[in-house]
Amino acid sequence: MSHKYSTKLFYKYYLDWIHLYKDNAVRPVTLNKYYLVQRKLKELAPNLHMNELNRQSYQKILNLYAERHEKTTTLDFHHHLKASLFDAVDDGLLKADPTRRAIIKGCSPSNKKLKYLNLFDLQTLLRSLNLREELNWDWFFYLIAKTGLRFAEALALTPEDFDFEKQSIIINKSWNYKEKHGHFQPTKNESSNRTVMVDLQLMQQFQVMINNKELNQPIFFSKEQRIYNSTLNQKLASLCKNNDIPVISIHGLRHTHASLLLYEGVSIASVAKRLGHNNTMTTQETYIHIIRELENKDNDRILHHLSQLK
Questions:
Q1: Torsion over CA of 43, 47, 49 and 53, rounded to 10 degrees?
Q2: Domain enclosing residue 71, as ranges
Q3: What is the pTM of this model?
Q4: Helix locations, 197-267, DSSP H
Q5: Quick one: which of 169, 185, 184 has its CA closest to 223?
Q6: Residues 38 and 150 in one domain
């Protein structure tokens, strides 16, 4: 007797897969991405059944999506679908994996803002900050530049997260600033729970400023305050413009931190761990331009070394 493979519509299978594996298992912001992919899938392939799925029909979906999206966005779309199709093969709903050796295309990238600052521009920015004796948002920018924390992770910091003896900051939560009544929430993923080493001077400065604050309360604002990412990004943008340096976002400070560590020769594995990335692949994909630049320098070093061997 031949195997009966699924004849369900692909976008309906994917919706059922989200309900089964992702509902109440991932953060709302991540779940929204899955539902966004599902809606796009329905738009691109409304009549494609699971038993019609093969490498060609799947590639056509990716190609259609790539017509209006950049390569990195298309890759993200592919990754979301691929996970569900792996399970479909494992569960006997598909004969073979249609995502195997898929080609990722994309339209020409738009002119994007610079993601990170060079060392000189970062130093110019940090010197311009108004670092008073009490915590303010300039201290917030300073801390992210020194640690590479995500925006929501830095917002969630409380005095008990600072380990002055071990000269480190413990990251075990983030702040949900997107809702009217903000609150603590889990970090982005398990890898985001980490300990970040910082320099002694920074620890001493914060020790003084958070000494009289409540142990389990955010250090940069009161819990009743509504925090807007856009407002703080505008404040940072003004600082950049006033100092005649490229305008970057708060997330750009995180990119700057990671980029400078890579340029200093810190390993990808160590940078990935410090940033709270799930794996080094995420780090490699994010900073591929820097890694390639460093590889070229390494090749020069290798050739120089080999020329000395006689």
A1: -70
A2: 10-90
A3: 0.67
A4: 200-209, 229-242, 250-263
A5: 184
A6: no
Looking at the structure of the chain, the number of domains it has is 2
Residue 101 lies in a domain: no
Calpha distance 275→256 (Å, rounded): 12
Q: What is the pLDDT of residues 239-285, one digit of tens each?
A: 999 999 999 999 999 999 999 999 998 999 999 999 999 888 888 88
What gap in Å lies between CA 286 and CA 258, rounded to an integer? 10
Residues 140 and 252 in one domain: yes
CA nearest neighbour of 76 among 62, 59, 87, 90:
62
- Angle of helix 10-21 relative to helix 71-90, nearest 10 degrees? 80
**Tokens for 33?**
């991405």
- 147: three-class secondary structure by DSSP: helix
d(CA 151, CA 308): 48
**Token representation of residue 232:** 């703080």
